[in-house]
Structures are given as structure tokens and as C-alpha cells.
Amino acid sequence: MLSLKHSIAPQSILLMGAHCDDIEIGCGATVLYLVEQFPEAHFEWVVFSSTPERAKEAMRSSDIFLAGVRSKNVTVQNFRNGYFPYIGDQIKDYFESLKNLTKPDWIFTHHSEDRHQDHRILAELTWNTFRDHLIFEYEIPKFDGGLGSPNCFVPAKQAASDKKIATLMECFLSETVKPWFSPETFHAMLRLRGVECNSATGLAEAFYCRKFLV
Predict the structure, then answer these.
(1) What is the per-residue pLDDT for 146?
(2) How far apart are CA 86 and CA 144, in angstroms?
(3) CATH code for 12-208?
(4) Quick one: which of 55, 48, 52 has its CA closest to 80?
(5) Angstrom distance (rounded) from CA 68 to CA 54
């Protein structure tokens, strides 16, 4: 596995999720790695759809994942869940305001081929709005399927993986009624991607990175 080490530390990192637990599921262990490696960076954390109950869960979770960073801003919006393709103009307007608010070096968003309509729209608007940025598209396990062959891997420490899973289960109690929302699911994803990149710990998160310059 070819390793491309980052030579320039990002000053600002933008994390976006359609729903309150998406960032944590898709790239939680990687966020913990970034916080450890770049504590001086600014972290912009944006959730696009929520209920009041889930917003509280998201705020608590983001506090845990971003503990120790110098600068952060967490925003939870309430765009209508499941309707992103039909209110795309409203979400696009918000993206334009977000572009003026933050100047991210790295962006984490949903995979553009995700079969969930809200996830897919968010990925499309990310590329539509941020034209000259390093964008990492994360994956979410779901009933619809759609897992593919990512081309970017971030090995995860055992402690980070454990913290990711524990935080998901402790913070998002509203989701634990869903049969797929379980430690076994999240560990299986980490383990599978760990095998694919020959991670020393056997654990990793994976991303789709369409364009980057060496």
C-alpha cells in the first residue's frame, strides 16, 4: 500500500453530515486522528437535518470528538429529512453562505454515489460549491447497500475505534432502536477497510478522493 504523507498541516477542516450521526459513523476515527495530529486547526462541523432531540445528541457527540482542539464551530441545521432533492435550492443557498464563512483546506462529506438521497445531494453540492479543495467522501452502511471500492484509507488505532463506537452508542440513544445501529456494524466496517489497506491494527476508515495533486 502506497502511503502519501501530508507535508502541509491543514489550517481548517470542514466536516459535513446530512444527519446527526453521519460524521461520526463515516469518519469518526479519522476525526480523532486529525484532532490528535492537528490540534491547532479550526474544525467546522455542520449537520444539515435534525430534530431537537437529535440536535442535543449531536452537540454532545461533537464535544467528545473535538475535545482538545484550539478552534471549532458546530452547527446543526433543520432542513427536512428525506427531502433534500426537493429543497436543493435552499440547501445550495446555505452552502454559499458556508463558503463565505469558512475557508477549509480539507473537506469531509458523503460519497457522491450514496443511495440515500440526502447523502447524495450533500455530496453533489459539496463539489458544486467547493471547487478547489481536497475533498474526502466517506461511506455510511445502510439497508440500501451501496458500499464500493474506496481509494483512500486512514488506519485507525484500537483506542480511536473503541472511542468512536462507544460515543455513537452512548450519545445517539434515539438511534439504538434501529437493528443496524450496533457496535458490531461499526466494528465490521472498520475491520473490513483495515483488511483492505493492511492496517497494522487491522482497523481503518475509507474514503473516495477523486482529485488531488502530489
Answers:
(1) 84
(2) 20
(3) 3.40.50.10320
(4) 48
(5) 23
